Predict the structure.
Amino acid sequence: IHGLGSVSSKDNEKKGEEFSGGGKSSHTAVVRNKDAKRPVVIITVYSNGFIVSGDEKGFRDNSDPVNKKIVEDMKRTRQAPKELEPIVASVLKGRAEEVAIEVKDKSSEVYSPPKPTFKAFQGQGFSMKSESDSGQPQSQSLLSAKPVKVSVDSSKPSARVLLMLHPRNRVPQAFNTTHTALDIYQHVLSLTPDIGPFDLVSGFPPKSILNEPSKTVEEMKLKGATITQKKK
């Protein structure tokens, strides 16, 4: 690896290329690369460490004594320290035996990791439409259901709900907490016999209560809820 400087011009020809310091604004030291085919590796030096271009490890912090020594040796000798060679070799992966090195001096700056960039959410979201719109076939119990009005047993726990029937007919209704989604479906079927296929949804976002017809009012936590009839 050709270094960042040398002691004499003769040594320059044998060991390394003399580097030229950049201006105060550029803060860059560049190895004179006489061979256009020679790859260039950029080392950016910060007050707290350095980064080698193409290095998978990324920022190398001066809290590691090896990294600190590399920076100190580069500043002191203006050469590429031996400890730097395996890092550069891992970047090149055997593509070249010689490499030109460019040093960007940002030693007046403290390196801090870049803020993560925004990435569009690619997960699953909620749809405001009912789950019944997914086209899932109704269970056999619903397909064979008959219009039956519920009978509420006053001696047993009950819950009041608001049935919102198509198109916008509000019907308060009591059910025993042991009544099932199928019971509610049959009751609504008796109130709207000519509407055709429909679903019953509740909650937010709207969710079909008919996915599991055997679930009870208590299990579905429908006390005080609004159940909306959706025509298919």
Observations:
- The helical segments are 9-14, 65-77, 85-92, 140-143, 181-191.
